[in-house]
């Protein structure tokens, strides 16, 4: 019986899909205030061994996207639509226990706050051993040995001692290393890192990003890096997807997103960041206003209320019509009503001002 | 705009130590967490001093001690000419209108049961100040000034977004027109696009009212944007202080180099080419700091002398002070990094302190 | 750890000392004259004064207190100057002249009643509270949840004297389902059947309010823990939902509940005044009420001391227990 299902599963795998392919993913939550559309129509694909950065602010839906891939949304009462293809297997249609078998073995996740993400009552070694035994039939001793190896591998000094430490006895950076070790212990093909450095000091942040890059090379893992910080993405990601208001608003190669961003929101993000590598501008140029509430999204373009250029679009389309995510160049998608010509012009202007920092 | 700048704050040799008690039958003080161990700084009106450092550097304890939210162990704090280091809480009350604070977490710093109007007008009530035109008018003017809709006077904090809540915190802080505002990581909990809004707001208010800011933050890019001078803290000590341009373009302390090197740049072309100094490990425990120079265990310049001798904070150029036996210039660091790929400090195994109790694990001030 | 325990025990002793002192002071301020109560209406002042002397009430209160404390450790002799001195051996909690009994003897006689009442009630309410609370949390928002919360609200709003009286009235007096509760010495082991018949209604009475409270507490606690990041981590590891719920969520969520329940149990062990009275159980609660009504100072002091000691000890046990389950609060 089990074998037959396996066989069927294999038959379903389609070779023409990318390693990870998300198609029209949507997540809704029923709350007291009404239906919250956390993400809407997210489509993405990612080659094996590459790194995708999903960038967005709070409420943009970036974490929900990650948790939807991991199949963690349903246990929180969310409703998932669309398709998630991982290595030729569609996950959204799988039974709960089948997704559970993939979680932690084929795909793994690390989280923002390593203190609250580790269980305070159990020793860190035991928590990793538990992850091994959930997926593999090996003895406890062997699992512990493997755990020790992994702790050394992720750069935990005196791992023989720290394996029996409780999370609160470790520093923040050390805890995040434990989380990374726990995520990689079953050699997953996909690693999702949800703001892995936000809770850490800047010096430790660099250590952790280095570690993720090194391990990615070594294990050949495909990585999705969820972050609000365009800065940490720059040298880690191959591809960047910018999210806003539960939608993808711009997707492209990392160099394209930094060098020729076209969506006004991406431009706004880039000009909001204080930069160390440039002349000091007299003032920063923030995006005005506040991010939209997912309960009450604007009817047209979700970014319109904060956009400086929406008045350039004819007939006020930004106010009433949802723009589509359309290709503007090969491998570069933008969701904006502005004509491509005008977008590029605006982008160039903004980047020239940023580079010169004359304000 | 105030006509002439004048000194608002002078802190001299400030120390804040927390006793560590034994767990025997009769608890004895067996050590001190030297959260702040002898820092000196000064601040003029209309000036911002950025105080940067990693967690555990003591920057937050220093900020709170300066406002006397924590009682300092030793040292002097002169606020507008008054010595406040040893004043009683009652004697401090009239002084408090001169110095206010903005907190990191806009979600927890505001009482959820009070209306925005109530929160912003609290300083008036506490200090017994009757603003001309009445409290309500004053509060609405403040709300307008910080970019909030004055009609939202009667709303509760949970009806506002993170950025708006931080604006409420700013309005409360400027209500009594203080000379000094201590900002404790005021933007680190906010979204990137909102951070820039708040920084701009703080700068505008400084220009308008001549407020001095002590700006405590870990984000060097943010600090650069707002500060006139910067002090770098490590394990309770100021290791380098200089005008902004100097700190960012010509730092001398290896720790400052390391911090600057760790700040990511949002440009893949630059980021991939940068020379990096990778600091290993974490800040050591302030209960048992390293001998000599506190930074030596993570320092790429460390030599024998560093373990034996505490480096003094010496003025190497006008207004530029460094506490290091072997300061190093940017050019030298770059040359070394080019030669070696990246500068890495081999990690020495620091014996972990005996694990004793929850409150020793994250050294820091006991939160009030 | 040992040092910590010793320190806590010393603190406990100090607290008990202050407590008895307070009781003594309060009673010496009371208008009622204990000597006056020793004989009937036709007492002459001379007899009262004589009794006052015999009962050692004519000495300063401080000295009375000293003798009381000394009695606990070395015992004491009452009515020394008389023909029939009373020997009260250590630990002597005093002697009630109103009832002509040693306080300790009365307490040890009443204690088993209260003990069994409290334990039975405790087990009942914890089982009901935890099981239904967890079910409500797991089925949040569905009919199971709403039913449990509805029941909890009803249980919460019924005062225990009302439940007790209603149960007693219908079950015993009207429907004759159970005999009239009567405690006999030697229970529960001498007569288990009668024991359960006697205790069933008191247990239900005690459990109702607490079960309602614990249902709500458990539900909220478990729901809160389900939102914790480490529960999400457990799921992300691919653990079966059963293990996520039991090993990760419930272990963390129920720990504070079970430990805090220890305090409620201790509180009950000091006497359940209302329930004991309704069902005519001769426990510490009934004893305490009787002693207060009769202004029986030695007895009141003794019961206060015992009840307080129970609660303080329970506090210590709860704290130590917590340190065992939660490594973050582990000491030494």
Task: Put the structure in a nutshell.
The complex is a heterotrimer of chains A (359), B (368) and C (332). Chain A has 359 residues and is of the alpha/beta class.
Break the fold down into its secondary structure elements and pairings.
The complex is a heterotrimer of chains A (359), B (368) and C (332).
Chain A: H1 2-12, E1 20-31, E2 34-46, E3 51-55, H2 62-69, E4 78-86, E5 89-90, H3 96-102, E6 107-110, H4 114-117, H5 124-133, H6 140-153, H7 159-162, H8 172-184, E7 190-194, H9 202-219, E8 222-227, H10 230-233, E9 239-244, E10 247-253, H11 254-259, H12 264-272, H13 317-320, E11 325-329, E12 332-335, H14 340-356
Parallel strand pairs in A: 3-8, 3-9, 6-7, 7-8
Antiparallel strand pairs in A: 1-2, 1-4, 4-5, 9-10, 10-12, 11-12
Helix pairs in contact in A: 5-6, 5-8, 6-8, 8-9
Chain B: E1 7-21, E2 29-44, E3 48-52, H1 59-66, E4 74-79, E5 82-83, H2 89-96, E6 99-102, H3 116-127, H4 135-145, H5 162-174, E7 180-184, H6 192-209, E8 212-217, H7 220-226, E9 229-234, E10 237-243, H8 244-249, H9 254-262, H10 268-273, E11 277-278, H11 304-308, E12 314-317, E13 320-322, H12 330-340, E14 343-344, H13 358-361
Parallel strand pairs in B: 3-8, 3-9, 6-7, 7-8, 11-14
Antiparallel strand pairs in B: 1-2, 1-4, 4-5, 9-10, 10-13, 12-13
Chain C: H1 2-28, H2 45-54, H3 61-74, E1 76-78, E2 86-88, E3 95-96, E4 101-102, H4 103-138, H5 143-157, H6 160-174, H7 192-226, H8 229-236, H9 241-269, H10 273-278, H11 284-293, H12 297-325
Antiparallel strand pairs in C: 1-2, 3-4
């Amino acid at each position: 019986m089990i074998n037959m299902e396996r066989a069927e599963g294999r038959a379903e795998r389609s070779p023409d899909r990318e390693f990870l392919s998300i198609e029209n993913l949507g997540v809704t939550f029923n709350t007291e205030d009404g239906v919250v559309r956390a993400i809407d129509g997210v489509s993405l694909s990612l080659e094996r061994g590459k790194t995708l950065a999903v960038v967005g602010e709070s409420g943009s839906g970036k974490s929900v996207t990650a948790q939807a891939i991991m199949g963690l949304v349903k246990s929180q009462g969310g409703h998932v639509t669309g398709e998630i293809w991982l290595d030729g297997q569609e996950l959204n249609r799988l039974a709960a226990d089948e997704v559970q078998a993939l979680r932690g073995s084929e795909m793994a996740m690390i989280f923002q706050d390593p203190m609250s993400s580790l269980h305070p009552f159990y020793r860190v070694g035991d928590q990793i051993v538990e992850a091994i035994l959930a997926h593999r039939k090996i003895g406890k001793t062997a699992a512990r040995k493997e755990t020790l190896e992994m702790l050394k591998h992720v750069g935990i000094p005196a791992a023989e001692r720290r394996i029996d430490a409780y999370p609160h006895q470790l520093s923040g950076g050390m805890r995040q290393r434990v989380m990374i070790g726990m995520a990689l212990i079953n050699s997953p093909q996909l690693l999702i890192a949800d703001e892995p450095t936000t809770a850490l000091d800047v010096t430790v942040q660099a250590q952790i990003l280095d570690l993720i890059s090194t391990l990615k090379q070594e294990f050949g893992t495909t990585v999705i890096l969820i972050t609000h910080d365009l800065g940490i993405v720059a040298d880690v990601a191959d591809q960047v997807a910018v999210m806003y208001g539960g939608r993808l608003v711009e997707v492209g190669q990392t160099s394209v997103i930094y060098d020729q961003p076209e969506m006004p929101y991406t431009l706004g993000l880039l000009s909001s960041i204080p930069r160390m590598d440039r002349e000091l501008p007299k003032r920063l140029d923030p995006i005005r206003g506040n991010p939209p509430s997912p309960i009450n999204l604007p009817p047209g373009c979700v970014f319109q209320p904060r956009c400086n250029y929406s008045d350039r679009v004819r007939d006020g389309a930004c106010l009433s019509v949802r723009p589509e995510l359309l290709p503007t160049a090969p491998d570069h998608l933008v969701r904006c009503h502005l004509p491509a010509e005008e977008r590029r012009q605006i982008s160039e202007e903004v980047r020239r001002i940023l580079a010169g920092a004359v304000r | 705009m105030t006509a002439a700048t004048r000194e608002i704050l002078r802190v001299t040799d400030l120390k804040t130590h927390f006793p560590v008690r034994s767990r025997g039958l009769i608890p004895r003080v067996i050590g001190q967490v030297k959260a702040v161990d002898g820092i000196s700084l000064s601040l003029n009106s209309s000036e911002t001093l950025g105080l940067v450092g990693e967690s555990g550097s003591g920057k937050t304890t220093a900020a709170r001690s300066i406002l006397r939210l924590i009682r300092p162990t030793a040292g002097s704090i002169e606020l507008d000419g008054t010595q406040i280091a040893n004043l009683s809480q009652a004697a401090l009350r009239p002084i408090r209108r001169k110095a206010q604070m903005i907190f990191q977490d806009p979600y927890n710093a505001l009482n959820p049961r009070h209306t925005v109007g109530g929160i912003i007008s609290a300083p008036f009530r506490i200090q017994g100040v009757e603003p001309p035109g009445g409290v309500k008018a004053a509060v609405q003017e403040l709300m307008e000034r910080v970019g909030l809709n004055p009609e939202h006077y009667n709303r509760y904090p949970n009806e506002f977004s993170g950025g708006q809540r931080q604006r409420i915190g700013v309005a409360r802080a400027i209500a009594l027109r203080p000379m000094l505002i201590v900002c404790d990581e005021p933007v680190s909990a906010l979204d990137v696009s909102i951070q820039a809004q708040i920084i701009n707001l703080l700068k505008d208010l400084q220009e308008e009212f001549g407020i001095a800011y002590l700006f405590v933050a870990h984000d060097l890019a943010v600090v650069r944007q707002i500060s006139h001078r910067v002090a770098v803290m490590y394990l309770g000590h100021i290791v380098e202080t200089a005008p902004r341009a100097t700190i960012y373009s010509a730092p001398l302390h290896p720790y400052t180099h390391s911090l600057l090197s760790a700040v990511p740049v949002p440009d893949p072309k630059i980021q991939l080419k940068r020379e990096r100094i990778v600091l290993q490990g974490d800040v050591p425990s302030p209960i048992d700091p390293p001998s000599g120079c506190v930074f030596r265990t993570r320092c790429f310049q460390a030599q024998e002398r560093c373990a034996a001798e505490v480096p003094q904070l010496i003025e190497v150029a006008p207004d530029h002070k460094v506490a290091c036996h072997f300061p190093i210039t940017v050019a030298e660091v770059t040359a070394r990094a080019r030669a070696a790929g990246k500068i890495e400090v081999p990690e020495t195994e620091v014996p972990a302190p005996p694990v004793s109790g929850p409150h020793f694990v994250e050294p820091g001030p006991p939160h009030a | 750890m040992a040092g910590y325990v010793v320190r806590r025990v010393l603190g406990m002793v100090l607290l008990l000392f202050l407590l008895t002192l307070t009781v003594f002071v309060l009673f010496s301020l009371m208008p009622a004259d204990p000597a006056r109560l020793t004989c009937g209406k036709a007492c002459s002042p001379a007899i009262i004064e004589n009794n006052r002397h015999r009962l050692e009430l004519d000495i300063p209160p401080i000295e009375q207190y000293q003798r009381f404390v000394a009695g606990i450790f070395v015992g004491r002799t009452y009515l020394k100057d008389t023909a029939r001195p009373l020997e009260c051996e250590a630990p002597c909690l005093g002697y009630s002249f109103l009832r002509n009994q040693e306080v300790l003897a009365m307490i040890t006689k009443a204690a088993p009643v209260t003990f069994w009442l409290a334990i039975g009630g405790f087990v009942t309410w914890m089982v009901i509270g935890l099981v239904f609370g967890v079910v409500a949390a797991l089925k949040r928002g569905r009919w199971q949840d709403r039913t449990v919360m509805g029941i909890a609200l009803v249980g919460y709003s019924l005062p225990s004297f009302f439940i007790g009286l209603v149960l007693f009235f219908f079950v015993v007096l009207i429907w004759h389902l159970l005999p009239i509760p009567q405690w006999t010495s030697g229970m529960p082991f001498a007569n288990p059947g009668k024991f359960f018949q006697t205790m069933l209604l008191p247990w239900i009475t005690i459990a109702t309010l607490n079960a309602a409270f614990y249902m709500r507490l458990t539900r909220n606690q478990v729901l809160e823990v389900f939102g914790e990041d480490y529960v999400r981590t457990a799921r992300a590891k691919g653990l079966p939902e059963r293990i996520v719920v039991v090993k990760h969520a419930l272990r963390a969520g129920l720990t504070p509940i079970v430990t805090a329940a220890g305090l409620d149990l201790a509180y009950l062990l000091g006497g359940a005044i209302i329930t004991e009275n309704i069902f005519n159980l001769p426990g510490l609660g009934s004893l305490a009420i009787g002693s207060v009504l009769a202004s029986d100072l030695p007895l009141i002091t003794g019961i206060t001391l015992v009840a307080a000691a129970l609660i303080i000890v329970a506090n210590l046990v709860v704290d130590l227990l917590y340190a065992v389950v939660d490594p973050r609060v582990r000491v030494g």
